[in-house]
Amino acid sequence: xxxxxxxxxxxxxxxANNGQEGHAVYIAHQGQVYxxxxxxxxxxxxxxxxxxxxxxxxxDIESAPHGPEVLERYPQVAVLKKxxxxxREVPKYLGxxxxxxxxxx
Length: 105
Fold this sequence. Notes:
The protein is α+β, with helices and mostly antiparallel strands.
């Protein structure tokens, strides 16, 4: 259930909060947007030299060495608006490869 106090951000608004030029550092996971600006691990909007802020990192977090519970340390500031067009399905063979080697995502 959506918290009525949270605003909705679309992908473009999320991307603007990428930690660059004084912007906040936002990341999304499963439709929830978190402000990780206070984390030393997200300085400049980049985490572990691989993950960029201002994006939906649901797939990345699923393949991370930690679980999504680390996001509980940070405030949820918004919810991510659902895309108006359906996402393309990943072919089964590619899905199997990505499941076996999540680093390729």
